[in-house]
Design goal:
The complex is a heterodimer of chains A (about 750) and B (about 290). Chain A has about 750 residues and is an alpha+beta fold. Chain A is built from 20 helices and 26 strands. Chain A has three domains: about 160 residues, 2-Layer Sandwich (Aldehyde Oxidoreductase, domain 4), CATH 3.30.365; about 170 residues, Aldehyde oxidase/xanthine dehydrogenase, a/b hammerhead (Aldehyde Oxidoreductase, domain 3), CATH 3.90.1170.50; about 280 residues, 2-Layer Sandwich (Aldehyde Oxidoreductase, domain 4). Helix content of chain A is about 30%, strand content about 25%. In chain A, helix 10 links the parallel strand 14 and strand 15. The two termini of chain A are about 50 Å apart. With about 290 residues, chain B is an alpha+beta fold. Chain B folds into two domains: about 160 residues, Uridine Diphospho-n-acetylenolpyruvylglucosamine Reductase, domain 3 (2-Layer Sandwich), CATH 3.30.465.10; about 110 residues, 2-Layer Sandwich (Enolase-like, domain 1). Chain B has eleven helices and 14 strands. In chain B, the strands form four sheets. In chain B, strands 4-5-10-6-7 form a five-stranded antiparallel sheet. In chain B, helix 9 runs antiparallel to helix 10 and helix 10 crosses helix 11. The radius of gyration of chain B is 19 Å and the shape is globular. Classes of the chains: A alpha+beta (about 750), B alpha+beta (about 290).
Amino acid sequence: MPKDEYTSRDFKVVGTRPIRPDGIEKVTGKARYGADISAPGMLWGAILRSPHAHARIKGIDTSKARAMKGVKAVITRADFTHQPEDSGMADILDNCMAGDKARYDGHAVAAVAATSKSIARAALAAIEVDYEVLPHVTDVDEAMKTGAPVVEPGRQQESVPEGYCENVTGRSQYGHGDPESGFEQADLIVERSFKTAATHQGYIEPHACLATLDSDGQGDLWVCTQGHYMVRNVCAGVLGLDAGQLRVTASEIGGGFGGKTHVWMEPTALMLARKSGKPVKLVLSRDEVFRATGPTASSSVDVKIGMTSEGKITGATATYRLQAGAYPGGIAFLSAMCGFAPYDLENVRTEGFEVMTNRPKAAAYRAPGAPMGAYPVESVIDELCQKLDLDPLETRLKNAAREGTRSSYGPTYPAIGLEATLEAAKSHPHWSAPLGENQGRGVACGFWFNFGGDTCVSLMVNPDGTVSLSEGNPDIGGSRASMTMMAAEELGVPLDQVRTIIADTASLGQNEVTDGSRVTFAVGLATIKAARHAIEIMKERAAMTWGIDPEAVDWRDGAAHPAGPNAGKFPPMTIKEIAAIASNTGGPIAGHHEVNAEGAGVSFATHMVDTEVDPETGAVKVLRYTVFQDAGKAVHPDYVEGQFQGGAAQGIGWAINEEYIYGDDGRLQNAGFLDYRIPVASDLPMIEPVILEIPNPGHPYGVRGVGETSIVPPLAAIANSVSRAAGVRLTSLPMSPPRVLAALKAQ
Amino acid sequence: MRFETPTSVDQAVALLAADPEARVLAGGTDLLVRLRAGQIAPSAIIDIKRIREMTVISQEDGGWRIGAAVPSAEMNEHAALKADWPGVVESADLIGSTQIQGRATLAGNLCNASPAADSVPAMMAARATARIAGPDGTRDVAVEGIPTGVGKTSLEKGELVTSIFLPAKPAHSGDAYLRFIPRTEMDIAVVGCGISLTLDDQGKISDARVALGAVAPTVILSQSCADTLIGTAGDDAALDALAAAASAEAKPIDDKRGTIAFRKDVVGVLAKRAAKIAITRAGGKTGGET
């Protein structure tokens, strides 16, 4: 268990809504994103991609491309002479540049660097690839069948029982009790199967980087990523470089949502730079982003839940089949862990199957696996409530997990906020607002673990008493604002005395990727500890000046004070005064903190949504949406509300229109924002965020991560709303108009 | 690639006639997208926006001549045009976004020859004609005579559309265009329907034109749909017959944007809804018994 870090206090800065420190740069277009940087002598990189879903690469002839004027380097897999020992690293290399076969439509097979973009494009067209097309499989259920085309043999783990197709690479199981005996106690059992489509994170900024790599092994990489330390470590591992020789700097980032926690093309840029001896810029097109990065898994799920007529769940099981794409891995185990996590159950079992298919490698997407974990479970609970004439919020409260509950995935919960979100939902005016014809109201709960991880922060007190704070996580959700606020809070100085920057990989120790909703929690914790470290030093300097014991010095309101009358009568020394004489009292003052942060504090949310279904066209309109979520402590409430709204907005897209559409040829048919339909502004109502604050015992200020939980309930909340509006249970996402109309007509 | 900016129709025709690989640029909202996607590689782009007559909306014989380079945003700001042909103006106003509206043109939408083009069913219903200039002079062609297939037109070598003409609106007439998209904007029609009709002194429909979009390789101008309305007062039975006729006329495909069944259903729904708007605009009443 994490040690109890939390103490209650009155905040001066935390909880206010100051203007964001990166705002002016961004609204004036000066902020530098991945593609916004150039270097003298720079070349343009471009990648040739497989037009086949599955094909053996019999040969690649690059001679014509190499002979073209302006082409400075052409690479294929043969140029990657370092073969990583680690199978995960080897898979990343193979995904960046195909080896003996192309495993999906869009798989990279060669790359060029040229003096202009148009020459680079022409050079790609001059590369001749001899493919032997192989049978392919892109559907998760098809891929599990005996006799399905095997994406890569020999990757099945021991966890998979005998008799499964080799595409099934992993199986996980969770739960406790005996669901079968639980079902015997039920008054009603509902058992249903569900499907969700693969969805893309849909970040606005395509992947981009600028690489140099010299013959002495020293390299620099400027890259749009959620984790430049991860990029450094992976590129070093894939290319056989020393991590210390490769400096990676993170650009500003135009969204990631998990899709930029992976390496897709950075080793390619470095290899082109090495071979050409020039800086190489590589910017993916939107088409490439859709075909070769990102999407999260599609899923196929069976759920069975038994309930008493009073609404108590007596037994529950779920089987999750998720596609991992073209490489082993996958997130079905997370679905299997998260699905029933909101509930206090005596008898629950879940299992997850990881399945390889001829699709791009499935990537993290905001609470990976949890939305498809919750959607089938929350749908079946809603159906049970309808059939037993029970209130869906009361029923969830009756089964809600609380402090001391043994979770469905194992651990016992400390203080958690699920009941608070359900109670807030019950008393909100939205719950009692009237509904019109063809309208329905849905509710659903969601869970996410949250994460801490390796974190380093350095806090410098400058000679003029201002503060420079360095963190190592790209600011994707307002971390510069939050860290600045927490540092100012702890030091007792005005906000404008602190500036936070994102340091490169050579300037701080290892930092985990910006994922798992970890940054405000873990980097915040390290910031507070680094500030406390600096305060201890400043107290020592004041004590030295006054000639008293450091223990006799207090720190408050940005100044050292004698602890009491016995300590001596000295006027306070402010941070400015202490900084001004630092050179004479022992040298520069800096605090730092390095930690593998534990105690992230799990997070719960309840969502409520009203929709209207057009009975003649199947079109779904989202009328009203309210998010109730536990933030632990909202450091900057604007950003917290933005996370709540953003998760709901992405969930609305996932529920209603977004899907990867494959043709019979195994090729992606909608690699663009025209036919991959994320919601536009006019598709969304105002999404009302309601922040609950149940302090996390694992953080000094009680902070919990908030970035991911908000995408967990929407799929089910919207499905429940639409199902009630349409009068028919919808079990397949997206609930696009043709699907809804077909369901209405089948009634 | 050359970029040409002729200042007269004759210059544009000469440039086009001399170079079969040249492409005309009006708003560019289709051309530039296809260019960037690598689907086309023209030898020259001929920008028509410097040709004065192509950039104006003018009254002619009680109707409206709309230059081929007039963006839909200008049509939307033209109160008199909008009062006469609200369905046509609204159909163009549905295309793309506010930014695209500042560029996209009726003539470009027509010559792109997509069956899902929003303004084309509305123009067909309105009996719009396209004026074509070419090496052999000028000719006027009904809008339905321009697209011949997906991405194909009847324009000959050296020809370009210089304007669209919307005829004088008959008394007691109204038009409307509706489309179905899964989103609320920034999308391409899964199904579209344009209707224009005229009422007689008794409030019965004396003339009707019904055009169905995105349900065949080219927009369908449906006489059988029109026949369900003519002679009726647009009562419920007539509208149900219209919906059935529209569904029967539609010959859609299954694709990433919709299924055959969905399109056949929804084209009827839209026809009915568009007819109601057109009747109301013509001064009639809808929804009554026969």
